[in-house]
């Protein structure tokens, strides 16, 4: 198995690479790559979703600085100048003429633009931000809102339509904006801490002379927050400002990544620090709620999980990589074999340079090599990662937070039971408790949703803070039985005692979280004990309610009577304890031809007057025991006298054939019921 836990998607998006006459642009919101040829009005657009190339003809009026589709792909916005952006209505045939929008201010420059809604767009300028509504029918734009402030640089997240503007002399005063349809919210500004300035190496005399000369003018050596060191990442449904802080090389301290949580109610909060053991140029992706940090110099990537592990001091959590930093798995791309003839057109594979200087990283998980003409998604290889984490409890904690991890978790559970990789019972118990804690939260959330739905109360819908939302995977009893227990229970190399202990431990864990245990788990335990003739242990489990009472379990015990006769009485006692299954007890007794015990049970529960006489008379007649038939017949004759004051059966009882059978066996002048002590016979 490969020793790389990160991979680039096997099927990259291929597009026309950048060249002398070709510029390449990427639209993060629509995940599209534009290849624009100079001097050519045709633009090639390649989409990640469709993997198709579309060609658009637009008026050629100069070089392209940026180009993006509206979110519904009906309007194309092209920036050819620092002062304005052009728009083309592509959805309207014959309406390919461009219309333009100038930014505010004669000296203001458009740094970038971003679509925030179907027909809404923002201009990020050198003097602030301008929010417009595009009116394609009128071929014009309407200003919704603008904000004026000096902008050093900006970061925009199309995932949440949040814009960060850098202001201040050091660039570390951040002004966030959140864009919604027809409105914009200016969130509280906040300041990002800068790394400390390295101590001067001057001598004491030189330092004193410098101090006497007064304050020195600002120099470029003073720390500044750079655009390349800041990005926005969506982790576990919340948006974080991710800041890379390199330390001075002389300090011998590795870089760190600081996470600031954006909130509506107040300034962004510094909530986590991710420790790196190196300095240099870093790039960040968000993959499956993990922060993946790429380091170009060492050509490695490290993975951080802010919900897993870490040391918490009450305000800030300190995290180290989940595993040691490793390179991304080697990747190749198909190319035409230059040695082959034009008729053959053979394809060959070319190894890609990993961590190439040509790589550009986009959120959440995109890497583009414009010179190679490739766009990949960064992917996490859970199967490989499993073999690198020895602590099963920590591994399960980690996997529960990942998408599409259910089968991986179940495989981990299965392998922990197999000889050679078998874990101790205490480790398995901790794993079960971890899984069932999440399972319980999931059931509680589902119950709350059902209650809200039944009450038709929309305000009672589950909030994003419900615990189970944090987990991407839930392992229920059916999953554990189908994919783990039922597959290993018949493996001969696994001792049955170990398997019984494992299943009992799983049942214990379910009970500890007040989760109703499904009958098929009990069936596995009973099957193992019966196959190994451990009837005494089975008896003990039932007697001390290790295996909880249930109708399916009672029926299973009844089926074991032939190999373990006491199973019948155990099943009957179980059914008696289940007060809601009295009819089942009678059915069971009748099926075993235990008519007298059945009548006794009915009398003890005061239900002898409600059962049909025909049911018992038929069973007594089929038994071939005349004494039994006589007793049952006289029991119901007595009931007739008590209910109707005469011994004869009503026509609705449909007992004529049994009356005839009684007369043929005992004669019509048989001793009357008054002379037969029926209660004595039933004692």
Q: Into which percentage range does the β-strand content fall?
A: 25-35%
- The secondary structure category is alpha+beta
Strand order of the largest sheet: 20-21-22-23-28-27
Cα gyration radius (Å): 39 Å
The strand count comes to: 33
Number of helices: 17
Q: Specify the biggest β-sheet.
A: 6 strands, mixed
The overall average pLDDT, rounded, is 85
Helix share, percent: 25-40%
- Taking pLDDT < 50 over at least 5 consecutive residues as the criterion, the unreliable ranges are 458-469, 671-675
- 3D shape: elongated
- Cα end-to-end separation: 73 Å
Descriptors for this entry?
5-stranded antiparallel beta sheet, alpha+beta, single chain, 6-stranded mixed beta sheet, 683 residues, elongated, 33 strands, 26% strand
Fold and architecture overview:
The protein has 683 residues and is of the alpha+beta class. Helix content is 29%, strand content 26%. The chain contains 17 helices and 33 strands. It has a six-stranded mixed beta sheet with strand order 20-21-22-23-28-27, with no helix packed on it. A hairpin with a 2-residue loop joins strand 24 and strand 25. Helix 7 (496-512) packs antiparallel against helix 8 (519-531). The two termini are 73 Å apart. The model is unreliable at 458-469 and 671-675 (pLDDT under 50).
């Amino acid at each position: 198995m490969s020793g790389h836990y990160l991979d680039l998607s096997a099927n990259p998006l291929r597009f026309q690479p950048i060249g002398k006459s070709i510029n390449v642009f990427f639209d993060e919101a629509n995940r599209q790559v534009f290849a624009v040829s100079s001097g050519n009005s045709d633009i090639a657009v390649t989409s990640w979703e469709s993997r198709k190339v579309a060609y658009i003809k637009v008026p050629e009026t100069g070089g392209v600085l940026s180009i993006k589709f509206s979110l519904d792909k009906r309007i194309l916005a092209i920036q050819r100048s620092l002062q304005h952006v052009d728009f083309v209505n592509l959805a309207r045939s014959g309406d390919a003429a461009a219309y333009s929008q100038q930014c505010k201010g004669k000296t203001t420059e458009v740094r970038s633009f971003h679509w925030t809604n179907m027909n809404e767009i923002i201009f990020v300028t050198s003097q602030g931000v301008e929010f417009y509504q595009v009116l394609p029918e009128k071929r014009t734009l309407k200003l919704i809102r603008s904000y004026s402030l000096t902008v050093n640089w900006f970061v925009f997240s199309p995932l949440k339509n949040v814009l960060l503007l850098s202001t201040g002399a050091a660039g570390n005063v951040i002004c966030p904006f959140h864009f919604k349809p027809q409105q914009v919210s200016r969130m509280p500004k906040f300041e990002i801490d800068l790394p400390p300035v390295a101590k001067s190496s001057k001598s004491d005399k030189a330092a004193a002379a410098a101090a006497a000369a007064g304050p020195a003018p600002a120099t470029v050596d003073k720390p500044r927050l750079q655009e390349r060191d800041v990005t926005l990442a969506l982790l576990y449904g919340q948006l974080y400002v991710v800041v890379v802080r390199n330390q001075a090389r002389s300090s011998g301290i590795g870089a760190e990544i600081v996470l600031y949580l954006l909130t509506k109610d107040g300034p962004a909060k510094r909530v986590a620090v991710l420790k790196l053991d190196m300095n240099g140029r870093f790039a960040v992706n968000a993959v499956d709620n993990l922060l993946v940090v790429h380091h170009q110099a060492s050509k490695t990537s490290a993975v951080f999980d802010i919900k897993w592990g870490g040391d918490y001091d009450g305000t800030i959590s300190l995290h180290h990589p989940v595993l040691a930093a490793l390179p991304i798995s080697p990747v190749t791309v198909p190319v035409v074999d230059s040695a082959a003839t034009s008729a053959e057109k053979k394809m060959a594979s070319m190894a890609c340079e990993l961590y190439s200087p040509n790589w550009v990283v986009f959120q959440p998980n995109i890497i583009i090599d414009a010179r190679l003409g490739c766009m990949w998604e960064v992917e996490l290889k859970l199967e490989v990662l499993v073999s690198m984490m020895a602590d099963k409890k920590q591994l399960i904690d980690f996997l529960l937070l990942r998408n599409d991890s259910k089968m991986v978790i179940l495989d981990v559970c299965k392998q922990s039971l197999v000889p050679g990789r078998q874990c101790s019972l205490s480790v398995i118990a901790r794993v079960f408790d971890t899984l069932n804690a999440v399972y319980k939260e999931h059931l509680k959330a589902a119950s709350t949703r059902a209650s809200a739905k039944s009450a038709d109360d929309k305000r009672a819908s589950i909030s994003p803070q419900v615990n189970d939302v944090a987990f991407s995977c839930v392992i229920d009893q059916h999953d554990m039985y189908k994919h783990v227990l039922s597959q290993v229970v018949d493996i001969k190399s696994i001792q049955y005692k170990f398997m019984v202990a494992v299943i009992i431990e799983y049942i214990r864990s379910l009970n500890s979280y007040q989760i109703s245990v499904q009958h098929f788990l009990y069936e596995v335990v009973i099957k193992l004990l019966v196959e190994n003739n451990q009837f005494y242990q089975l008896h003990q489990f039932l007697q001390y309610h290790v295996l909880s009472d249930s109708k399916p379990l009672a029926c299973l015990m009844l089926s074991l009577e032939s190999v373990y006769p006491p199973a019948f009485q155990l099943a009957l006692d179980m059914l008696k304890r289940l007060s809601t299954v009295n009819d089942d007890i009678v059915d069971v007794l009748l099926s075993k031809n235990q008519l007298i015990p059945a009548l006794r049970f009915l009398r003890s529960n005061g239900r002898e007057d409600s059962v049909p006489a025909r049911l018992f008379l038929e069973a007594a007649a089929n038994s071939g025991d005349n004494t039994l038939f006589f007793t049952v017949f006289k029991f119901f004759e007595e009931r007739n006298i008590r209910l109707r004051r005469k011994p004869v059966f009503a026509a609705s009882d449909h007992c004529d054939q049994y009356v005839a059978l009684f007369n043929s066996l005992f004669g019509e002048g048989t001793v009357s019921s008054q002379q037969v002590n029926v209660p004595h016979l039933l004692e």
